[in-house]
Design brief:
This protein is mainly beta. Among the domains are: 94 residues, Sandwich (Immunoglobulin-like), CATH 2.60.40; 97 residues, Cadherins (Immunoglobulin-like), CATH 2.60.40; 101 residues, Immunoglobulin-like, CATH 2.60.40; 98 residues, Cadherins (Immunoglobulin-like, Sandwich); 103 residues, Cadherins (Immunoglobulin-like). Helices cover 7% and strands 39% of the residues. It has five helices and 52 strands. The strands form 16 sheets. The protein has a five-stranded mixed β-sheet with strand order 3-4-10-9-6, with no helix packed on it. The protein has a four-stranded mixed β-sheet with strand order 11-17-16-13, with no helix packed on it. β23 and β24 form a beta hairpin. It is rod-shaped, with a radius of gyration of 61 Å. It holds the Pfam family Cadherin. It is found in: Cell membrane. It comes from Ursus maritimus (Polar bear).
Length: 737
């Protein structure tokens, strides 16, 4: 950019070329630009989007924005071309004062994902401020008796610029009495003095008028002037003198009011009132000095009077003069440099911005939650701040730049375990004792559908009486989903299947919201003893998750069927007691048959007895076994004989004897016929009959087989007739009831 300024006739033209630098500093994580102060609106600063590696098309969708703490809208970014430009007037002196370094720190923030970049724009100084003297006219009173080489301090000019632009040189009008002397010290302060080169003679010249000019080092250079009016007095010829021209003292910033800073001592060799000294601050006195210090005019003590603050002002330069009380007062001068020492009196400050809440529980490790910046107005170790985070998991602090941190996710989240985290960020300085500040961040974890509904147990057993009314509530299933809101909203449904030739939904239904299971029709135990089905629970998440539970519904029998006579495959002879089959036995018949035989005599009154015969159908070739229940029954029957009436026993024995004789005769006749096949060869299933005292078997292949039980000597003998198939006769003799 070119700037030109044209003065009056003969004034030189000024050509100012301002170079704008845009440099990426590798490894620093920061983009650095520079711009001169007083640059016009729209001045190009840098291609910030390109330098940050961002595409122009993503600036608006990613909410590209620039933040500058305390610097308003000095700089702005054109979102169309990604150029950083000057938006309003930048005055370096107003922005940074006389600091050698002046920069505008920008935070560039983009979302999706959240990123933050740090940009530093250095403001370059231009020579836009001329030297300025405190007064336009300076009056000096010098006694004619002052010897040559006497020094008279002058107030130098100040230049708001820095560097070479503020390097001042002085000159005065040529004269034979006074010259200028400028001395620099290690504290980078300059001392300007007017030195008497030749003794004054009031009789010749009563007043001298000199023009003092200050030039800065800028190009073009700027100047400032002050008129020196020197009055020559012909009185007191000795001025007070200090033992040092410059004093250096240090004071803690927390010093109490009235703390002694220094006690000055000036001497005047004159006698009487000409040697009496009054101390005072040399005018003009800066307001900062008047606010912070007070001087005792009689003894020269300088004490504190206001609160000192290292962060506000680190060094005070106090000019003191000692004036005697002569008719023509004479003054001595000195300068006190008061350095304020820092103490750790400022706690760190924490600023939390760009919160991205709530955080989804499936957020990736490394997700940025918030941006945190810390600061401390103290200096040195007192202003060095470190940050810590409690709790340490599942979050952590990552340092992105000096005193800048990112709060990031360090491990996976589970909302069902912890739904909200209260994080405490602690900033602690390096002072002794150290000071700290805390800030709380509440991080809410947003739910995702990562839990399926769960039943308390995988299977339930339900008992329902048959003949229930239609629509009867028989059970309620309940599943719990650990998620929240719609992800935890559970609905129920049947897992459809066929039950015989009918659909499951024709038997039962389930309410989608309550999980109540209803029987849609009366259940019949004789038709369906067990109804087994599954109920599905599914949440409302995206995608939905679900699980199943099995219900076993047992239909309980009720006495809702009248007895019915069924053909049984056996019969007993009325007088002989023979038990025979009425049809061919097959595998469809029950494997076990229970026969109850009643024996009745013809006496008056008639007496009766009963016998129980248990029959088992077994494969041919298997040995018939008497059941343990039968043996146990036999033992019980024998025990019961003790209580039987004697007369009943006699009658039963008579009838039994008759039956035994009949059986023996019948057996003898049958055994006289020749056998046709082996007695115990393999064949079809064999009927095994068990009584209270033994067992017998019957073969359907017309084989004669006689089985005797393993019971006591009273075992009944049973025979099968091979000549009457399929009508087989079983005869027995009742020995006891």
């Amino acid at each position: 950019m070119l700037f030109s300024w044209r003065g009056g006739p003969g004034a030189p033209s000024l050509l100012l070329s301002l170079l704008l630098l845009a440099v990426w500093e590798p490894g620093s994580g920061q983009v650095h630009y520079s711009v001169p102060e007083e640059a016009k609106h729209g001045t190009f600063v840098g291609r910030i989007a390109q330098d940050l590696g961002l595409e122009l098309a993503e600036l608006v969708p990613r909410l590209f924005r620039v933040a500058s703490k305390g610097h308003g809208d000095l700089l702005e970014v054109n979102l169309q071309n990604g150029i950083l430009f000057v938006n309003s007037r930048i005055d370096r002196e107003e922005l940074c004062g006389r600091s050698l370094e002046c920069s505008i720190h920008l935070e560039v923030i983009v979302d999706r994902p959240l990123q933050v970049f740090h940009v530093e724009v250095e403001v370059k100084d231009i020579n836009d401020n001329p030297p300025v003297f405190p007064e336009s006219k300076k009056r000096l009173v010098i006694a004619e008796s002052r010897p040559p080489e006497t020094r008279f301090p002058l107030d130098g000019a100040s230049d708001a610029d820095i560097g070479v632009n503020s390097a001042l040189t002085y000159r005065i009008d040529p004269n034979e009495y006074f010259v200028l002397d400028t001395r620099n010290n290690r504290e980078q302060t300059s001392s300007l003095s007017l030195v008497l080169r030749k003794s004054l003679d009031r009789e010749q010249i009563q007043e001298h008028s000199l023009l003092l000019t200050a030039n800065d080092g800028g190009k073009p250079e700027l100047t400032g002037t002050v008129q020196l009016l020197i009055t020559v007095l012909d009185v007191n010829d000795n001025a007070p003198e200090f033992d040092q021209y410059i004093y250096k003292v240090t004071v803690l910033e927390n010093a109490f009011n009235g703390t002694l800073v220094i006690k000055l001592n000036a001497t005047d060799p004159d006698d009487g009132t000409n040697g009496d000294i009054i101390y005072s601050f040399r005018r003009p006195v800066s307001p900062a000095v008047l606010y912070a210090f007070i001087i005792n005019p009689n003894n020269g003590e300088i004490r504190t009077r206001g609160k000192l603050d290292f962060e506000e002002k680190k060094l005070y330069e106090i000019s003191v003069e000692a004036i005697d009380k002569g008719n023509i007062p004479m003054a001595g001068h000195c300068t006190i440099l008061v350095e304020i020492l820092d103490i750790n009196d400022n706690t760190p400050e924490i600023t939390i911005t760009s919160l991205s809440l709530p955080v989804r529980e499936d957020a990736q490790v490394g997700t940025v939650i918030a941006l945190i910046s810390v600061s401390d107005r103290d200096s040195g170790a007192n202003g060095r701040v470190t940050c810590s985070l409690i709790p340490h998991v599942p979050f952590k602090l990552v340092s992105t730049f000096k005193n800048y941190y990112s709060l990031v996710l360090d491990s996976t989240l589970d909302r069902e375990s912890v739904a909200n985290y209260v994080l405490v960020v602690t900033a602690r300085d390096g002072g002794s004792p150290s000071l700290s500040a805390t800030a709380s961040v509440s991080v809410e974890v947003a739910d995702v559908n990562d839990n399926a509904p769960a039943f308390a147990q995988p299977e339930y057993t339900v008992f329902v009486k048959e003949n229930n009314p239609p629509g009867c509530h028989i059970f309620t299933v309940s599943a719990r989903d650990a998620d929240a809101q719609e992800n935890a909203l559970v609905s129920y449904s049947l897992v459809e299947r066929r039950v015989g030739e009918r659909a499951l939904s024709s038997y039962v239904s389930v309410h989608a919201e309550s999980g109540k299971v209803y029987a849609l029709q009366p259940l019949d135990h004789e038709e369906l003893e067990l109804l087994q089905f599954q109920v599905s629970a599914r949440d409302a998440g995206v995608p939905p998750l679900g699980s199943n539970v099995t219900l076993q519904v047992f239909v309980l029998d009720e006495n809702d069927n009248a007895p019915a006579l069924l053909p049984r495959p056996f019969r007993v002879a009325l007088y002989t007691g023979e038990i025979s089959t009425t049809r061919t036995l097959d595998e469809a018949d029950s494997a076990r048959q229970r026969l109850l035989v009643l024996v009745k005599d013809h006496g008056e009154p008639a007496l009766t007895a009963t016998a129980t015969v248990l029959l088992s159908l077994v494969e041919s070739g298997q040995a018939p076994k008497a059941s343990s229940r039968v043996l146990a029954g036999a033992a019980g029957a024998e025990a019961a004989l003790v209580d039987v009436n004697v007369y009943l026993i006699v009658a039963i024995c008579a009838v039994s004897s008759l039956l035994v004789l009949t059986l023996l005769l019948y057996t003898a006749l049958r055994c006289s016929a020749p056998p046709t096949e082996g007695a115990c060869g393999p064949g079809k299933p064999t009927l095994v009959c068990s009584s209270a005292v033994g067992s017998w078997s019957y073969s359907q292949q017309r084989r004669q087989r006689v089985c005797s039980g393993e019971g006591p000597p009273k075992t009944d003998l049973m025979a099968f007739s091979p000549s009457l198939p399929p009508l087989t006769v079983l005869s027995f003799k009742v020995l006891h009831s």
